[in-house]
Write a structure and sequence with these properties.
Blueprint (H helix, E strand, L loop, with lengths): L9 E2 L2 E4 L3 H12 L4 E5 L12 E2 L1 H7 L5 H6 L2 E10 L2 E12 L2 H10 L6 E4 L2 E5 L5 E5 L4 E4 L1 E4 L6 H5 L3 E20 L8 E4 L6 E9 L2 E8 L6 H8 L1 H8 L3 H5 L4 E16 L6 E3 L5 E2 L7 H21 L6 H8 L2 H22 L3 H31 L5 H4 L2
Parallel strand pairs: 1-10, 2-3, 2-11, 3-7, 5-13, 11-17
Antiparallel strand pairs: 4-6, 5-6, 8-9, 9-10, 12-15, 12-16, 13-14, 14-15, 16-18
Helix pairs in contact: 1-4, 1-9, 2-9, 6-7, 9-10, 9-11, 11-12
Length: 401
């Protein structure tokens, strides 16, 4: 589609709409590669938002080749050990570097480190004209951006997708709930650096994780319940009491259990996009599909999208004229992307089924896992007792060290 570009219109190769993790990362990677990029978001500073709050080695391994690791991890808190609890008992202490972080802290750090070449425009998108040639994005204040490609990185928001005729389809409504809250003492006051406390397989709990973000001990609880469930309302009103009833040993493990501030509750629906093969527009990250955060693969899926789109497909697309739907389809059909999305969906469904599915196969799996894990815990406990019993008594100078 031929469009006349007005003299006052910003002209770039790529306009990215949405400056969360996916959008900011995409704009940064493209600009560092010498592409002209405009990044549009309604907030100059990303507001506090309850999203992913832990990074592990797989995430770091993806941030590093994108050139984003130093900035992202500089806004996070390093964690070197995590105590693993099953059935209320300590079964392992895992050593390895992880990070706790506030989502908005990392996004704002990445924004602050963007190349100066990124044209960051604060405003609300009022309209998009897309076609196989040039795309035009119009902001509510009248500014316009002409680009060869529009990258939609608006996460869970539907407005931009609807503008270009893309629908979101629920594959499982009310799949799970993520609850985030702070404990009432500083992180150093707890007898562990971080903790993961797993559900029994019969309590609708995936797991609770406690970890530091700066001086705060942060909690993320993943459950298979709905937002209007009476249990959810009780948790909002009396979080410490409800959590203590759910995990009776937790108070003793923590040396007291108290919650500070409000509980953030994020309902999780599993969704897919429909009608997304469009001229001139591509979806990335949660704008394309949403999965459950409990398995811990969501950030990896988003970064896989950014890597493939910015380092593989966009350079190919910009090397030849046009930007029709057949070109865009190469990204959606990329085997790495297909497998990344499919793996996240499979793990989301598997975790839920293991916790609550009433089918005989899943009941048997839960029973088997319960026996195996309890047996393993007893073996570890017996081994630890034997080591203590055989250890020589400390005397003399060694006892005073």
């Amino acid at each position: 589609m031929d469009q006349t570009v007005m003299p006052s219109t910003t002209q770039v190769e790529v306009v990215v709409i949405g400056a969360g993790l996916a959008g900011t990362a995409a704009a940064t990677v493209l600009a560092r590669a010498g592409r002209s990029v405009a990044l549009v978001d309604s907030h100059r500073v990303f507001p506090p938002e309850f999203r992913a709050e832990k990074l592990g080695p797989p995430h770091v391994a993806m941030l590093e080749p994108l050139g984003l690791a130093d900035t992202a991890l500089g806004a996070a808190t390093a964690i070197d050990s995590i105590d693993i609890y099953r059935f209320g008992r300590l079964v392992a202490r895992h050593r390895g570097r992880e990070y706790g972080y506030g989502y908005s802290d990392v996004v704002n750090a990445l924004r602050g480190a963007m190349p100066a070449a990124v044209d960051f425009m604060v405003g609300r998108v009022a309209g998009i004209e897309a076609g196989p040639g040039l795309q035009t994005v119009t902001l509510a204040d009248g500014r316009a951006i002409a680009a060869r490609l529009v990258v939609v990185a608006t996460g869970l928001g539907d407005a931009i997708r609807r503008m270009v005729g893309i629908a979101r389809v629920d594959t499982r409504k009310a799949h799970s709930l993520s609850l985030g809250f702070d404990l009432d003492r500083p992180a150093y006051a707890y007898p562990f650096e971080s903790l993961a406390y797993y559900g029994t397989g019969y309590d609708r709990v995936a797991y609770l994780t406690l970890f530091p973000i700066r001086d705060t001990m942060r909690a993320n609880l993943f459950v298979y319940r709905e937002a209007n469930d009476p249990w959810t309302r009780a948790f909002r009103q009396n979080p410490a009491e409800t959590l203590g009833a759910l995990m009776p040993n937790l108070g003793g493990i923590c040396g007291g259990l108290g919650v500070a501030g409000r509980v953030q509750v994020r309902p999780i629906d599993l969704t897919l996009s429909q009608g997304h093969r469009r001229d001139g527009v591509v979806l990335v990250g949660d704008a394309f599909c949403t999965t459950c955060p409990a398995p811990g693969v969501g950030v990896k899926r988003v970064l896989t999208d950014v890597d493939l789109l910015c380092n593989v497909h966009i350079p190919r697309w910009l090397a030849t004229p046009g930007m029709d739907a057949s070109k865009i389809g190469a990204f959606y059909d990329d085997p790495r992307k297909v497998e990344s999305d499919a793996q996240a969906i499979r793990q989301s469904e598997f975790s839920r089924s293991m916790a609550i599915d009433p089918g005989l196969v899943w009941v048997a799996r839960r029973a088997r896992n319960t026996l195996v894990r309890k047996g393993a815990a007893l073996v570890r406990q017996a081994g630890a007792s034997l080591v203590r019993a055989e250890a020589p008594p400390m005397t003399g100078s060694s006892a005073r060290m």
